[in-house]
Amino acid sequence: MDFYIFHIISLSFIFSIFLFGLLGFFQAGHNLILILLSCEIILLGVILGVAFCAVFFNDMLLEFFILILLVLGGAEAVIALAIIIIFYRMGGALGLSIINNLKG
Fold it and tell me: 9: closest CA among 52, 70, 55, 62?
């Protein structure tokens, strides 16, 4: 009985992290930094969900997939921060209105 309660609590915690990320993404408005942080929280919720499944099913392939997701999340954060720094240097402020000035 305690085994199933642990699973329910763990899954609800993971789902709440994912929902907080979605809520932050939609409530961020025009702030690029909050949108980036919300994307990272969403990715964290997904990684925790995959980690929970990897432990529950005892699957090494899912554990390898978690490692790939962590590397992908780190690379995404670095690229997004570099783009935000470029936007700040171009316009002096951070907002979604700067994206309209991009060419290409």
Answer: 52
Per 3-state DSSP, the chain is made up of helix, strand and coil in percentages (nearest 5) of 85, 0, 15
> Beta-carbon neighbour count of residue 63 at 10 Å?
13
Tokens of 67: 């490692």
Tens-place pLDDT, residues 18-60: 999 999 999 988 788 888 889 999 999 999 999 998 988 898 9
CATH class of 2-101: mainly alpha
- The domain locations on the chain are 2-101
Could you identify the residue written with the tokens 């997904």? 46
pTM, rounded to two decimals: 0.81
pLDDT tens digits for 50-93? Answer: 999 898 889 899 999 999 999 999 998 899 888 888 878 877 77
- Give the closest residue to 10 by CA, choosing from 64, 71, 43, 56: 56
Q: Who contacts 55 (Cβ-Cβ below 8 Å, separation ≥6)?
A: none
